[in-house]
Amino acid sequence: MKKLTSSELRQLFLDFFKEKNHHIEKSASLVPIEDPTLLWINSGVATMKKYFDGSVRPENRRIASSQKSIRTNDIENVGVTARHHTLFEMLGNFSIGDYFKKEAIEWAWDFLTGEQWLALDPDKLYITVYPEDKETYAIWKDKIGVDESHLIEEEENFWDIGEGPCGPDTEIFFDRGETFNNLPEGHEENYPGGQNERWLEIWNLVFSEFNHKADDTYVPLPNKNIDTGMGLERIVSILQDAPTNFETDLFMPIINKTEDLSGKKYEEKKNKVSFKVIADHIRALAFAISDGALPSNEGRGYVLRRLLRRSVMHGRKLTIDKPFLTQLIPIVSEIMSEHYPEVGENRELIEKVILSEEKRFHETLSDGLNKVKELVEELKEKGQSKMSGKDAFQLYDTYGFPLELTEEVVEEENITINYKEFDAEMQKQRERARLARQTENSMAVQTSLLNEVTVKSTFIGYNQDETTTTLIKIIKDEAFVEEIEPGESARLLFEESPFYAEKGGQVGDTGLILNEDKTVMAEILNVKSGPEGQPIHDVKVRKKMSNNETYYLVIDKHRRRLIERNHTATHLLHQTLKEVLGNHVNQAGSLVEDGQLRFDFTHFNQVTEEELKEMEKQVNQKILENIRVETTETTIDKAKEMGAVALFGEKYGKHVRVVSINDYSKELCGGTHVETTSEIGLFKILSESGIGAGTRRIIARTSEGAYQWIDEQLNILNQTSKLLRVQSLNELPIRVEGLQKELKDANHVNESLHAKLAESQAEDIFKKVTDIDGITVIAEEIKAKDMNQLRKLADKWKQNDYSDILVLGLRNGEKVNLIASLNDKARQNEMKAGNLIKFISPYIKGGGGGRDDFAQAGGKKPEGLSEALQAVPDWVEKNS
After folding, report:
1. How far apart are CA 28 and CA 20, in angstroms?
2. How far lies 133's CA from each of 155, 170, 171, 406, 806, in Å?
3. CATH node for 6-250
4. 450-552 has which fold?
5. Residues annotated in the binding site, as ranges?
6. Distance (Å, rounded) from C-alpha 551 to C-alpha 514?
7. For the region Disordered, what residue ranges are annotated (predicted)?
8. pLDDT tens-digit series, residues 649-704
9. Are 499 and 524 in contact, with CB atoms under 8 Å apart?
């Protein structure tokens, strides 16, 4: 067995499959692109779905990768077990309708046992096989020569996640020896494939050969596929003879740095879990933030916030009570630099995000501690000694306050927690998270329809708006047909097309299909890309159309020109954002339509009005400069040498288009653009807003759209001028300012009148005193402007000592308010204003509370106010 570093192993795996003519695919972003079924990329095959379901045809049907992945369904187990991780790497080789079982098995065995490769002892390898998969069993036994004592039939060896491709799988296990055996002889799980520590699963080979259909039937796939997965962390632990994944070169440098920061030792058993949690979570945080995810209160942002807060809490257990996680980022970067340079490239951003979040959490911890103390005081006042699980869960969920920390605080006061209730709330949260993670099937049913389209269809729309061409394929109701009738909908492929297919944020073209007499044959409603990028036209047919006939295609030129102006303006905006806000700004999504453009970007702070004005000014300046927009077709490597910006999450082939606006903006882009910036005409930002933690959105218009918007605003201003009777728009601000002053003066007078009215009523109300068992009470309705005036009357009551208890009610439309105030005499009788308000507020369908001497409530039933006030004497009698 070879002794290899993690980097050596990763490269060896990729080299092995490169020799087998596989395309080595770069690891995709952890943030799924255009896939609502996944919160994170959670496996190697997750990035291959488009190939497996046939929606995209790969250039090479053999692919291998080392894919970074995140799984967060069992965060609580991280650090507790030997191999649970949030971030992990999956080594995999994939065949998209090329080789199948024989080659996949032979190559897996060769890589594991070959002297040139890992050189594992074959006698230590065990294989599990699906019982009905006799072919796989025979390959292992007869072709590879594995002894039958090392072949185990396992019913669970069938990979099936619901509708879509599925099939049997075969798993390879490594025998770590009797010293790792954690189960007694004869235990039902004590075998290769069971839940034990001795036999470690290192590779799973999945044979996708069936379609699991909606009616729960299984039919053979048109194209059989191979999907394999080998956890890098697991195989490294074997090669480095490590008891768990954490004692490898992937984690130990992080653990060692944490030892330096904490002064604690990893060898101490009580510290191990905390060291492991920190080492695991900081890797996930670094990679996820580098890929554009940011902490927030929902979705993947919530996962990151939770990982960071768990890390901080485990840091506290190691006596680290100040922000420290940023000091681990250089270590993560160094460990992974050979294959993942992006962590080092984005280090400044990662550290900025983590430090900001750590500081915020330390403040939150302080708030949470205060909240715990409040709850404890409330329990003590009520004479109770058990905190509800709902309260403990709110501390955990809202304040990020871990249950064990709450336990520490309440134990000092001899208070326990309702753990059953807490667990129930936690289970509800997990269910909500599960539902949020997956709202549809995660892989589409494979269809061979589009894969049968081998004829090339060329996009010529970069420099042509119309063309005469031949119809080569008609798709109707998921089948190829020879002709289509008027009124039918269909998808059409032509030998060439000027119609742009929607991608990269740019919408697809619309237009018409004509015959040689220029009669309209069909309307093109949208265009999408086929498996090889072919423009596939969604049409509504007007006249009968047939295969192999010649037609005249013409795009909606006016609409295309508007789209192009918005698209080029998006490139200018992207660069301007970096110049005004900073280089940390990156595109997080875009939509380029004919009416407007939408641009999402990463930024931590609110964009100021001055910054927006500066951005708008700079974009319009570039438009006025009439800069030529040039496109260059080149290789991806040369494009990067030119300084072209690759957009986050986009996949690029070997050959790319670079769109350049002088040296100001260079981006890899397949979209259509204007020839010079002056064609854009005008750029106007309509709105800027936050759409999530660290992500903001700008909506803007250009040319006709910008003019129309400005014209609409001028019409509004003109109408307002007429209403305010000003002669010129220049006078409008002065007139509005004058009206604001008049309104302020009128409100002041109105307040004064209300106050005098309330004072006048108070003189009568304060005389209406009732004596109940020696406690004097005033309980009356009053006409006042708002709660503020009620409080002022309560202050006057208190100063003049009109009674022992005061209750005032106020109706305000559909709402009603109550206040209650008690003097020292009433409180000496152990009466509390909060208890009184809680007693009478149900009459007004409301609720409230407060201090012992003052409380208030609001409700939605004004007609219940009289009953509420009449109930005050009853309460006094019961409590006096």
Report:
1. 22
2. 10, 9, 13, 53, 83
3. 3.30.930.10
4. Elongation Factor Tu (Ef-tu); domain 3 (2.40.30)
5. 567, 571, 669, 673
6. 6
7. 851-880
8. 555 667 789 999 999 999 999 999 999 999 999 999 999 998 766 788 999 999 99
9. yes
| Helix runs in 668-702, H state only | none
* Strand partners for 590: 599
**Cβ–Cβ contacts within 10 Å for residue 363, how many?**
9
For every residue of 507-540, DSSP letters joined together read PPP-EEEE-TT--EEEEEEEEEE-TTS-EEEEEE
How many other C-beta atoms lie within 10 A of the C-beta of residue 114?
13
Give the residue among 568, 695, 556 at the shortest CA–CA distance from 627: 568
pLDDT of 603 reads 84
What is the C-alpha separation between 350 and 330, in angstroms, rounded? 10
pLDDT digits (tens, 9 = 90+) for 431-460: 765 554 444 344 554 455 666 666 678 999
- Sole residue written with tokens 């990035």: 47
Where do the CATH 2.40.30.130 domains begin and end in the chain?
A: 450-552
d(CA 710, CA 628): 27
Residues in the chain: 880
**Neighbour count for residue 751 (Cβ, 10 Å):** 14
CA angle, 472 then 474 then 478, to 5°: 140
Residues whose CB is less than 8 angstroms from the CB of residue 263 and which lie 6 or more positions away in sequence, other chains included: 319
pTM for the structure as a whole? 0.70
Structure tokens at 520: 């309209």
Strand 458-459 and strand 496-497: pairing? parallel
| Distance in angstroms (rounded) separating the CA atoms of residues 444 and 37 | 11
Q: Is the pLDDT of residue 801 over 60?
A: yes
For the record, the structure tokens of 802 come out as 């009109």
CATH of 767-879, one of 3.10.310.40, 1.10.3660.10, 3.90.700.10, 3.40.30.10: 3.10.310.40
pLDDT of 751 higher than 80: no
Known binding-site positions for Zn(2+): 567, 571, 669, 673
Q: Of the candidates 800, 802, 787, 760, which has an alpha carbon nearest to the alpha carbon of residue 855?
A: 787
Rg (CA), the chain: 35
Is the pLDDT score of 849 beyond 70?
yes
DSSP state of 199: E
C-alpha separations of 621 from 608, 616, 624 in Å: 20, 9, 5
Look at phi and psi of residue 803 and say left if phi exceeds 0, alpha if psi is from -120 to 50, else beta.
Answer: beta
Strand partners, 205: 170, 228
Extract the tokens encoding 211.
């379609």
Query: Between 3.20.20.70, 3.30.70.1140, 3.30.2290.10, 3.30.980.10, what CATH number should domain 560-711 receive?
Result: 3.30.980.10
What is the distance between the alpha carbons of residues 225 and 349, in angstroms, rounded to a whole number?
39
Range among 135-149, 221-235, 337-351, 600-614 with highest mean pLDDT value:
135-149
Q: What pLDDT does residue 641 have?
A: 83
Per residue in 129-176, pLDDT (tens digit) is 999 999 999 999 999 999 999 999 999 999 987 777 889 999 999 999
The per-residue pLDDT for 692 is: 67
